[in-house]
Specification:
Elements: H1 7-23, H2 26-32, H3 36-42, H4 47-50, H5 58-83, H6 87-101, H7 104-110, H8 122-135, E1 140-143, E2 146-151, H9 152-169, H10 176-193, H11 196-199
Antiparallel strand pairs: 1-2
Helix pairs in contact: 1-2, 1-5, 5-6, 5-8, 6-8, 6-10, 8-10, 9-10
Amino acid sequence: MSLSLEPTTIILVITVLISWSAFSNARLFEMLLFDPYRIRTGNEWYRFVTHAVVHSDVPHLVVNMFVLFAFGQNVQLLYGALVGPTAVWAFIALYLGGAIISSLPSMFKHMATPGYRAVGASGAVSAVLFAQILLLPTAPVRFLFVPIDLPSWVFGALYLFYSWYMDKRGGDNVAHDAHLHGALFGLAFTAFLAPQALFQFGHFQFPYLP
């Protein structure tokens, strides 16, 4: 399957294979995770990207890959309509940008804190999720913790508020700021590609939904 057709599938397969290997390989896990102190002191800048291919446990991996699979295909299709043949690179930039940008707040906050660790593709998949929310604002979204269909824009607003609130509250060892900043990057990057999505609500929706 070629990269030009299925970046979502390729990212998913790579992430599952590496994450699964790292579950039983502590050296690999340690080498790839996000560690602001080691990034600053050892110039290990690659960790801004590699932390997105390792996860803390199987549920963490499954949830992130489910979101990527559920929304990535739609975003690929929509980006194809926006930028044509370069859509694959736009999608990769969205995903990698979400991973990198969502990590910046933790980098600034913990660069002098030895022992801080973070893993997972939450920031990257949040960027993908919110790219679809911007372009398909009333498409129904349902997750296990929301047992009813919600319009995408309503779900997105609730998600952003929840991430902001939990980040301020703290105490649960989850990097909610990565979810929040990944989501904001997904909105900003997609708005850059399609400014009309901001000013013509639902402009891209009807060709792709019944």
